[in-house]
Amino acid sequence: MCGYNLLDRAAATDAFDACSRHTIGLTPYSPLASGWLTGKYRADQPFPEGSRMTLRPDWYGHLSNDATFTILKNLENAAAERDLSLPTMALAWVLTDPAVTALVIGARSPEQLTNMCAALDVSLTPPERATITRIADGRPG
């Protein structure tokens, strides 16, 4: 298993290659980047009390910068254009990757679980996934 989400895809590259060679699926964890892809972290605002960034900041602390906040804003806009919430679109992006067979999720509330279930009904085409990937890379969509 490895982490895989719009903000952190590096570890998955090797895992995808290995899984493909051995004809096995991949079940990644952290599809919402410890809450970064939920919209709860905002530039120039403290992290919400009890959030993963207050509990374990070392895992995703490297994302706390202006570039990430710009990417998050652009991803939120892309989600809104599709009538989706950011977390639903981010989860759908992972789920529609052909190499992914399942996800390990860490819902901490009924609302989070609702967003996660909504992603099951979203079909992103390969061109849509590519556009969203470009936005997550900080390039024009």
Compressed to H and E, one letter per element, the order equals HHHHHHH
Form type: globular
Number of strands: 0
Q: Over the alpha carbons, how many angstroms does the gyration radius reach?
A: 15 Å
Fraction of residues in helices? 40-55%
Average the pLDDT over all residues and give the rounded result. 87
Query: Which regions contain 5 or more consecutive residues with pLDDT less than 50?
Result: none
| Largest sheet geometry | none
> Which structural category do the helix and sheet elements fall into?
mainly alpha
Distance between the termini: 29 Å
Overview of the molecule:
With 141 residues, the protein is mainly alpha-helical. Helices cover 47% and strands 0% of the residues. The chain contains 7 helices and no strands. The chain has helices at residues 10-21, 52-55, 57-60, 66-81, 86-95, 110-118, 126-136. The chain starts with 9 loop residues before the first helix and ends in a 5-residue tail after the last helix. The model has no long low-confidence stretch (mean pLDDT 87).
Quick gist of this model?
With 141 residues, the protein is an all-alpha fold.
Looking at this protein, list some descriptive labels:
141 residues
Set down the secondary structure blueprint.
Layout: H1 10-21, H2 52-55, H3 57-60, H4 66-81, H5 86-95, H6 110-118, H7 126-136
Helix pairs in contact: 4-5
